[in-house]
Fold each of these.
Amino acid sequence: MQFRFVAVLVAVTAATAGESVAQGSPPGASRDLAATCAGCHGTRGASQGAIPTLAGMESQAMVSRMQAFKAGTRPGTVMPQLAKGYTDRQIESIAAWYGAQRAQK
């Protein structure tokens, strides 16, 4: 039940934040979109568990993975559903933001 709530919350937040990015990327828009990932991937993408860390990931690698989730060619639990809610531009924005973060050691 909690997992569904988190998934719905993330999807709604992504959809709402996406409108601002589509209108010209105001300051903080990439960070706001990336914040929707924090519930599972950790603050600033520094996961503390089995879920992959996103901080410091090469942007193109993240874009490729997200596009594969979106297309249904990469298996996952919640990511295929969530990825379908992002535009290509939003995925690129999120990937660039996480790529600029420093991975925690």
Amino acid sequence: MKIRTYKPADLPTLYAIDQVCFPPGISYSKSEIARFISHRGSRAWVAEDANGIAGFLIAGKASREVGHIVTIDVLAGWRRKGVGRTLMDAVEAWAVEQRLRMLYLETAEDNHAAQRFYQRRNYIKIDEIERYYSDGKAAWVMAKTIRD
């Protein structure tokens, strides 16, 4: 498994992965994914092996010192095999390079597996946003201090 930066030819595959990783109301449209990636200050990493893309992560600068993880998607067959950890390592290394003080993300209130994954990486729940998703579900905002 290798991590590389996004290439425009990846967009259809990233969209397809997002559609299977998240239900309607949480998954993004192809144009939303493209917009997140093309936003100034954004980065996208792709995890792939010889058989294709297993997952990806999109992040960007929310401000000069704060980064936002927009999405991390890992195909079901690749979960618990280090793909998510490796993608998170990449975004956290980028945050250090960018001299960010904090990274944050949102995760569905009922996605306990994701919450445990982030907590193991020292992300803490800092806020709950009611009706965050279009299906009415709330989200937890989880954040990690990168440097003080």
Amino acid sequence: MIALIDYGLGNLRSVQKAFEHLGTQIVLTSDPAQVARADKLILPGVGAFSAGMAGLRQRGLIEPIRQAVRAGVPFIGICLGMQLLFDESEEVGQGFQPEKGLGLLPGQVVLMQGEGLQVPHMGWNQIQPVRDSLLLREVSPGAFAYFVHSYICMPVDEEAVLATTDYGQSFASVVGKDNVWGIQFHPEKSQRTGLQVLRNFITC
């Protein structure tokens, strides 16, 4: 069973339809027990980091996700879901303190910055694979994907950066370590590139 985690944020139906287009049925769930039983997990999302963590917390999903990852279950975070993989975000939460994330990958989430840079980064841009990864099989260097985000991930471990994208600065657009992956772009909006990444996740 591949579970698509519903925590109150994200364009869930479009992600689900992308998998169905590839001939794969996935289960949309906010049930911690179902998350714990899943063979693979998908964490999509759009919106604020703090709201995302609050949604996971309110539904009792944080510990089942962490336990599944520790058990080796393949896990992918999409857009906000990628950012939630990390230790914390400078997108402040309550009390103007950095918001803690899932802590599945060491690192921070920071605001995009650059003189004259228009934020959010919105639209088509290229991804450049920097190391071999099952998730990026048959994804060509310079392939285009669709982005909508204002914050970027800064992994502590450079080996966790699988692909980069340039927008005023070079940032990690695909990350991964062991059974955990994250993609900053929206695969369901990224046509051939996005479908290939999802196909790779299905077969990994």
Amino acid sequence: MPRAKDRGRPRVNLDRLTEILIRFSYLVADLPQVKEVDVNPLLVTPEEVVVLDARVILDVAAVEQPPKPYAHLAIRPYPAHYATTRNLSDGTPVLLRPIRPEDEPLWQELLDSCSSKSLFDRFQYVFTRTHEVAARFCFIDYDREMAIVAEVSEGGRQRLVGVGRLVAGSDRETTEYAVLVTDAWQGKGLGSLLTDYCLQIAKDSGTQRIVAITTADNVRMLGVFRRRKFELKTNLEERVVEVRKELLKE
């Protein structure tokens, strides 16, 4: 409720003030070199928001040796810079982007489009579909885990048809990789597209090696790994293949 003395005054531009605060949060997130900002006064009018005076203090150590992006934040923001559009071999455009918490309904639809074998090849067990499980796969810590979904326009709506996931180990030197592609989109090169993009993200993050496990009869994924010169080790007793690739050798 407005105070009595404020009645009759023009309404200030709250939308513009909200935009300024959001942009300021981006500055804090993107520039760890900024140690302190003092804005005083900040004038908010019906038309505009104006900074009349400000002081910025820089962290000299961060200026001389910039830390890794977002290392100064407790929670890493959504990595929108990883969103990119690529084309399959037949020219079909596919949006590759990090997964978001609100993707849960689309992620559930992705699972519904996969056969029992495809799900077993990916998870190595009978997969249970619950909200709690979906939240675990859609709401992630982008600092140690990355899930890149493949989004396409199909039937007038957006759908997820694949997902590649990277999970860093405690030492950050080894990263586990897994990929899932819906049955209707298998054999189109989507698994290769996701794998190449995830390998590039892993390399950029500084991980030293990629490891993965797939079933011995998952012919398509074994082919993807062989063409990228992964080392393959077959466990005949458990009918799985362990794959490994040293990124530092490239």
